[in-house]
Amino acid sequence: MHSTDGTCAPARSGRVRIMAAGGVLVAAGVLLSAATLADVADTLVTMDGSRSTFDILVAGSATPEWSPVPTDWQQGNVEALTITLFDGHGGGALLAPGGAIAVRVAALNASPRVAASLRLTIVDPDPRSDGVDPVTGNRTELFDELVFTVRHGETVLLDRIPARDLSTYTWGTALPAGGSTVLDVTIEMPATLGNEWQLAATDVQFAFVAVNA
Question: Residues 6 or more apart from 93 whose CB is under 8 A from it?
């Protein structure tokens, strides 16, 4: 899935594919209590949780200035939404040392009335550890060498953080029911990487996790 033809790749380039992942995380219920009635009549209490559902949808694009429309939103759980990066050869985008890829990822709180406390974790969904190609001697796993910057509008959430130093980012303010957030992500490949990274590849997954707030 991540193989590449060495004749198509410039020296010291790597291949990156992007995914955004989210999911149905919490079912927020309704708690009602009824006082004991000293009467002979029956008491019926109806509990309606139909508007207390909790759902997180995701969307993403490699198009600059993209903004999600209703048809863009998808479930990211169980199978992640994939943002296609075209390289002209049917694979992920080529990333050369000193180069960068820019994508936009978004999360939507699709609950009718339940606010969400949102967290973002950037991970490699299919890590190859410190693998080395037995034929070429080239490295196979690119993720740990990448550098990430994440912005929300003018606010920088993660500022040029190496992948191996990434930690979960938690928003300080809950995402209201029906609210969404769009993030600009820049993924850089350090200019110092050598030729042994020529055929390295990775997927990058943006995992949105939320709990009802």
Answer: 15, 16, 17, 62, 85, 86, 87, 101
Residue 138 backbone dihedrals phi, psi, to 5 degrees: -75, 155
Give the pLDDT confidence of 157-199 residue by residue, as tens digits. Answer: 999 999 999 999 999 999 999 999 999 999 999 999 888 887 7
d(CA 126, CA 203): 7
Closest CA to 105 of 57, 71, 147: 57
Give CA–CA dist 28/42, Å, rounded.
28
- 70-78 own/partner pairs: CB under 8 Å, 24+ apart: 72/106, 73/108, 73/110, 75/22, 75/23, 75/24, 76/20, 76/21, 76/22, 76/23, 76/208, 77/21, 77/22, 77/23, 77/24, 78/23
Element (H, E) at 185: strand 180-188
Alpha-carbon Rg for the chain in angstroms: 22
